[in-house]
Write a structure and sequence with these properties.
- By secondary structure, the chain is an alpha+beta fold.
- Helix content is 23%, strand content 24%.
- The strands form three sheets. It has a four-stranded antiparallel β-sheet with strand order 1-6-7-5.
- It is globular.
- The structure holds a DNA duplex.
Length: 246
Amino acid sequence: MIGHSIQRAEFSSPLVTRFNFGETARALEGAVIEGIRRRGKQIFFDLDLGILYVHLGMTGKLLWNVAAGKYARAILELDNGTLVYEDIRQFGRVEFFESLPEALQRAGPDALDVTFAEFHSRLKNHRGQIKPLLLNQTFVSGVGNIYADELLFAARIHPLTRASRISKRRAELLHTKLIEVLQLAIEHRGSSISDYVDGAGERGSFQQMHNVYGRGGKPCPRCGALIRKIAVAQRGTHYCPRCQRA
DNA sequence: ATCTATTCCTGGCTGC
DNA sequence: TGCAGCCAGGAATAGA
């Protein structure tokens, strides 16, 4: 898409585009895509006129040259193909900005790039529980509910552990697993539990490798104890009570 | 600073 | 077969 221009834009969801969808569509016509970036779950299309921001939320999909379905909320016709944004629940965003709003710049370092020194210094400063902290995108950008559970399992940390009380040694393991688990998930094209597909419309397979997420009541693959499911910060949280001690 | 609950949506599943 | 209730990959927001 880089170097190509948007011929026509069509938006049909005021929620996804934050109510200004007529303006958004007009603003994009004729724009040239100069680059595409990502930080955590935030996707940025750098245009000559501004920035197109995309966040998939819970059920968003970005499709390149795949026929638009019932839940298409935005369609961008480029001179070399068509990008469609689909989203059943409309918690995602496709927004145009001339410059990036301050709120979006508050995101923390990308989970794949954060150094241990930075990760550790941020971790030490938080007295709250580790699971909600991992979900906080201003702490580290890019960890969602599935991967928070999976990487806490990999690092053998109980989800309710106070962040500031995690030892340096254990923090090193958590930092290593943060990158390892996400890299492995990317290699397997993500977790397709119900809706998620990649740009070509293909499902990922990492859901088959989940150790704890979605496995409440089933045996831990490491020790056989039954995986427990609790609510933490109103999010379903799965862990092994034997491998991840409080 | 941190916590909790609520809200925005639609659809799938379960149990009656 | 219908229907109520609950749950779901996110995250902003209000109030304590």
